[in-house]
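> forwarded from #structure-qc
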């Protein structure tokens, strides 16, 4: 049995009528939205999660800034276990100590409304989603919405970078501001997201209380409170966009067949439903694209070496001009470990010619064989497209310009003489720029499946290594054969959140 709604509305004797359904934003006032949490408007709900009845209060559609541009997106849904209104305890947590799980539903840097407890496509039909799983385990859940790159109002774009991260941070500020009024501990906020949402989750964790975003909070009327969080869960983060093109070619150069979803068919309504297959584009890189791939690959070692990465024993992780060296060996070991874990759990790897098995498990992997075991997804440049056609070009537009470049390489080679995004805005979108921030989150869980081809595996590895070097507690792995996806291992995710929270 999965998560089914057993009862809604006035199931509990204490329940108030469902006024939220008639008034979408009950914190709206004559002059904007008021930010003091109002505990009076809720629905009392009961949902069966794996055979266990979970009772909770749903406070939905709370606009988290005083002057939203897009209230449908700049709002959150707060779900609180009913026990926390009756001095109860769940899983060792109570109304004071319960961590706050903060999932965002962002995909493709598109606008995303706050996910609801009964959303499909967040977990599959027969599996409880992350929100219900968290509630069942005694977490308070603040599911947050955020603006995205395609929003437009009266001929002006309202969700270009850095809107999405400003919004997530403003939502965190709302929770800190209301910490005494909302059950749960705002000092234990655990962010969760996948892909673009994973990148934003990481950025939220890295950039806690950075002064860089202050002007944006002022305009929106964000709560004057901390935007620090405690922990980050990031699935396949599409981050470090300035270096993602060269990282992609470092990994996939020489692999010339591509197969990818047709992003031109993407729309805000359809994309978050990850159960629907997207139309595919298949093809082979042109000679010109192969030349671009060679150039971008050649640029990666200088960037990688500039990071001065070290592994946990202090060994420098570097690359030579050909892209070989200790960093590549490190990545091979990451993939070998994933293969070995799958093998030890009973996965048959005998048909993977690039995996060398010994008596004890996976002895080695052949990197070239691994890279060529699947087609590439993106053609070069993978993110900053020369014709401004990528989602990321669209992310870095302005109020009046829909698409821009964000790397010097693509701007110089632009086929459309595209403009360049503001350097400060590019900085505000990359978690890598905030890892040494003293207020960055302490605990990190980063996952990127071995079958993921949306960005180079180097991107999440570099993030994990840098965080570890900065003294953070990092749980990083590349689960075997998992494609570009998130929330597929909720038991393990919440074992981790339990461990770090106690
Ligand atoms: C996502 C996937 C991508 O390949 C990308 O470039 C940006 C975002 C996503 O799934 O969110």
């Amino acid at each position: 049995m999965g998560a089914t709604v057993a009862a809604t509305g006035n199931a509990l004797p204490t329940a108030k009528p469902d006024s939220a359904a008639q008034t979408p934003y009950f914190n709206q006032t004559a002059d904007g939205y008021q930010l003091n949490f109002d505990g009076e408007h809720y629905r009392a709900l009961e949902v069966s999660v794996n055979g266990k009845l979970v009772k909770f209060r749903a406070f939905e559609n709370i606009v988290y800034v005083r002057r939203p541009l897009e209230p449908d997106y700049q709002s959150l849904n707060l779900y609180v276990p009913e026990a926390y209104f009756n001095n109860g305890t769940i899983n060792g947590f109570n109304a004071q100590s319960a961590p706050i799980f903060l999932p965002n539903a962002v995909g493709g840097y598109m606008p995303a409304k706050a996910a609801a407890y009964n959303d499909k496509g967040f977990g599959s039909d027969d599996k409880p989603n992350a929100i219900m799983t968290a509630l069942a385990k005694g977490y308070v859940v603040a599911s947050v919405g955020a603006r995205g790159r395609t929003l437009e109002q009266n001929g002006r774009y309202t969700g270009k970078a850095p809107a999405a991260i400003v919004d997530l941070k403003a939502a965190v500020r709302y929770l800190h501001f209301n910490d005494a009024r909302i059950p749960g501990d705002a000092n234990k906020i655990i962010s969760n997201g996948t892909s673009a949402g994973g990148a934003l989750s990481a950025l939220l964790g890295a950039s806690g209380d950075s002064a860089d975003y202050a002007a944006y909070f002022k305009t929106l009327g964000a709560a004057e409170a901390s935007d620090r969080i405690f922990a980050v869960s990031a699935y396949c983060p599409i981050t470090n966009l300035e270096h993602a093109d060269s990282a992609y070619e470092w990994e996939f150069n020489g692999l010339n067949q591509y197969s990818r979803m047709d992003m031109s068919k993407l729309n805000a309504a359809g994309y978050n439903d990850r159960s629907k297959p997207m139309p595919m584009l298949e093809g082979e890189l042109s000679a010109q694209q192969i030349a671009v791939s060679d150039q971008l690959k050649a640029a990666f070692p200088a960037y990688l070496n500039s990071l001065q990465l070290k592994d946990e024993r202090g060994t420098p992780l570097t690359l030579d001009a050909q892209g070989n060296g200790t960093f590549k060996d490190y990545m091979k070991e990451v993939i070998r470990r994933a293969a070995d874990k799958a093998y030890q759990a009973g996965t048959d790897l005998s048909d993977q010619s690039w995996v060398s098995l010994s008596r004890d498990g996976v002895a080695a992997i052949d990197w070239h064989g691994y890279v060529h075991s699947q087609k590439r997804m993106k053609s070069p440049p993978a993110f900053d497209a020369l014709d401004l056609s990528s989602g990321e070009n669209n992310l870095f537009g302005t109020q009046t310009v829909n698409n821009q470049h964000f790397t010097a390489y693509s701007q110089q080679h632009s086929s459309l003489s595209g403009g360049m995004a503001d350097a400060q805005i590019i900085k505000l979108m990359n978690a890598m720029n905030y890892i040494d921030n003293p207020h960055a989150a302490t605990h990190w869980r980063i996952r990127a499946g071995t079958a993921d081809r949306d960005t180079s595996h180097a991107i999440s590895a570099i993030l994990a290594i840098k965080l570890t070097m900065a003294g953070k507690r990092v749980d990083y792995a590349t689960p075997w054969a998992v494609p570009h996806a998130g929330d597929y291992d909720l038991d393990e995710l919440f074992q981790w959140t339990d461990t770090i929270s106690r």
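QC bot note: The longest helix spans residues 287-306. Residues 107-109, 195-196, 238, 391, 454 surround 3,4-dihydroxybenzoic acid (CB under 6 Å).
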